[in-house]
Fold this protein.
Amino acid sequence: MRCTVGVLVLLSRPFSLVAIQSFGQPHTTHTMSSDPKASIAQMEKIVSLCKRRGFIFQSSEIYGGCGGVWDYGPLGAELKRNLRTAWWNTMTREREDVLGLDASILMNPAIWKASGHVDTFADLMRECSLTNKRVRADHVDPQSGTVLKYSGAQSPTGWRWDRTITALTKSGEHIESFRKRIRALIAQNAGEAAGKPEEIELVGEEKIDAVNGSVDFHPETGGLLGEARPFNLMLKTYLGPTATEDDVTYLRPETAQAIFAQFKNVFDSSRVKVPFGIGQIGKAFRNEVTPKNFTFRSREFEQMELEFFIKPDEAVEIISGEVAKWHEGADLSEPQPNWGWELWHRYWVDQRTKFYQGIGLGDVLEYYWQTPADLAHYARACVDILCEFPFGTEELEGIAARGDFDLSAHQTASTKSQEIFDEELKTAAAKLTDEQKEALIQKRLAAEAAKTKGEPMPEAAVRAWFERLFKGSYVPHVIEPSAGLDRMALAVIAKAFSETEKVDEKGKKEVITVLRLHPRVAPIKVGVFPLLKNKPELVAKAREVYALLKKHMNCFYDETASIGRRYARQDEVGTPFGVTIDFETCGEKGPELQDTVTLRHRDSGEQERVKISELLGKLLPLVS
Ligand code: GAP
């Protein structure tokens, strides 16, 4: 999870994992696949399938693409829609304590200042001295080779480059190929003035040294990298026609801030009580320095975020007399009034795990619990739910316990109170003796004094906070499960991708791709096939079945090619069920089979005879 801390003294919310990593803390790549070549080959097959069958296309492909941006084709759009619906239903509709929000992408830039994004939402990045190409500081793999240095370059056009050029040869690269490559890079960078690359003269060549495992050279160009510098990831734009610096705003880098900014409106308009949550699904934009791994790290992506607001632990203690402690095996099935942040955090990790199990990712999840040293000063806990991708085990979702950091930051910056009033708390606090109140204050002061990160809250501020709390007022704390829709789509495709060898009707071996998508997320739920297309009675019946199912789920009607080929086409896009209308359906093999169809199950290959009248009842629970 990208948290916020600063660049020098890890600052506030959005500070990136790269920044964390450069301070010796965790980063997104947790394990690498054991065989890198096999992983690349597997990823290539997935990317190729996604394009061939209309799941994911490169954005603006006919113009050479647009870095880090992807389009979802017909099947990708359905898959994403199913994931979105699964998240929305699980996280909002099926719960009584979560409400939905659909906020705008563009917001007042003051929001991004208050949240810390303007000042600290940065990746550490290094620039190639040869080409000015940037690379994320933590994305430079160790390289070995010979370092060569030149005092400059010049060409017969009169163009000169009076600048030291230092670059690393690639493994096994001949010196002549290296020089040719460097000339080409210089020519590319200098433009027309430098003339033809082959006519550029590299001046004063010096062989410096052989290096082993160096991270100081650009992975693509080999050029020496400059110092790591923060690079803000927010995409700037202008609101209004004058387009001056006063009109600058940003495409939101996360959906969460809109939830915080609208917290009070939702609370006041919805008659809810803390604990409750606000969920939102929407686009987010980050000018990632090195977008990579297909859609995994994109510049435009979709997030599904929940901000779940809870009482501060002190309020729970006042109302319930104690705050329940988490222990291994604790019952997390039903939230309890005496839960503090720790149990709520564990509860959401559990809920999110169940969600992933429900879409077929249960057995490819891992968890990374940030250590106290990893955590931002305001965060109490943060767990990354990781998933096995062909390129390694990587973050799918982050679940953070963020205290009251976000709402308090907006309260301070906007000067609009984000406190809520809790009658139950006021009543319970009125029953406390002065000694009991003082004991609570002393406990908090001791906790502040024991803080190893951030400034302890001064005693006067602690006392003022308790004064408001005893009157029933506080700024809620928050637990934030934050998932990426595009990563989830990629995760389910990667998990589902499988190949089997089959012998076709002519005895030829072929490799068949089967996408074993969970029926809940599969873009097409059922393929409907008349056994033969030249038998009007079969076609008419198949059309009837298709019309019946189509109203309730996404179906695909196909009458071309052999039935085996049609099954294979649907297997390749992950359709879990196939319905074949044959002569039995039309009553040619006796009345008992009339109006029954063959229902084929993709994964088991099992085929069963089902009455058309029972088909919908059988399929609906399996696909929703
Ligand atoms: N509000 C908290 C937040 O935004 P984050 O860890 O930066 O935390 C949450 O992002 C999730 O959003 C990630 O776990 C990931 O699934 C998704 N995400 C973040 N950056 C992404 C990117 N560049 N491309 C695709 N998904 C991304």
Observations:
- The CA atoms of residues 5 and 11 lie 3 Å apart.
- Residues 1-2, 254, 256, 286, 288, 297-298, 301, 303, 305, 395-398, 482-484, 486-487 surround glycyl-adenosine-5'-phosphate (CB under 6 Å).
